[in-house]
Specification:
Strand content: under 5%
Largest sheet: 3 strands, antiparallel
Oligomer: single chain
Length: 203
């Protein structure tokens, strides 16, 4: 059975998605490539939650590293019994997967809230810095004619919608991959354990 190879494949994919999440979150801090809005604290509160850097990024590196090492990991053989050690390694990957689920779940929740709440901007209607769409429950996403209400930063609605959507998508993929590894790790651990018992009885 190829439980370790499957985990390794998942690990490499998580590694790539984690890097993309971190990049997307960093870009949220610099609308149109400008740094002054970050220094003036004129960014959405959900941008500052670090959901892509920490949740979809750093916390995903942990399960990714564990999964990548699984193919050749045997926990030192668990008293000289290689299959027992492999079972230990596969089952321990389930714990790492749960860390990934927590991180990706955090990324999904904050991204969804960021999309629903809308950007923090200089609104033309109030001529002050507010969240002009926070009472729309996300309906502003379908009303592009209202996006011009945000005068500054320029194109901030498009910027936020694009990057929060990317983070929501990547977080969702990470969540699915980690959930798959929970199943894969549990079945792989039980399978290796059963094989070890069968070999013991045969001997």
């Amino acid at each position: 059975m190829c439980f370790g190879k499957c985990a390794k494949c998942i690990g490499y994919k998580l590694l790539i998605f984690a890097v993309f999440c971190m990049v997307a979150n960093i870009l949220l801090y610099f609308p149109n490539g400008e740094t002054r809005y970050a220094s003036e604290y004129r960014l959405s509160k959900y941008t500052r939650c670090l959901h892509g850097i920490v949740g979809g990024g750093l916390l995903i590196f942990i399960p990714a590293a564990v999964f990548i090492s699984l193919e050749h990991e045997n926990c030192c053989g668990c008293g000289g019994h290689e299959n027992c050690g492999k079972s230990c390694a596969m089952l321990s990957s389930v714990l790492a997967a749960f860390i990934g689920i927590l991180g990706s779940g955090y990324c999904i929740i904050i991204s969804a809230l960021g999309l629903s709440h809308g950007p923090y901007c200089l609104a033309s209607t109030e001529n002050t810095w507010i969240y002009p769409f926070h009472n729309s429950s996300g309906e502003y996403l379908l009303e592009r004619n209202r996006w011009s209400e945000c005068q500054e930063p320029r194109n901030i609605v498009e910027w936020n919608v694009t990057l929060f959507s990317i983070l929501l998508f990547l977080g969702g993929i990470e969540f699915i991959l980690c959930s798959i590894q929970v199943i894969n790790g549990f079945i792989g651990g039980v399978y290796e354990m059963c094989c070890h018992r069968e070999e013991k009885y045969v001997c």
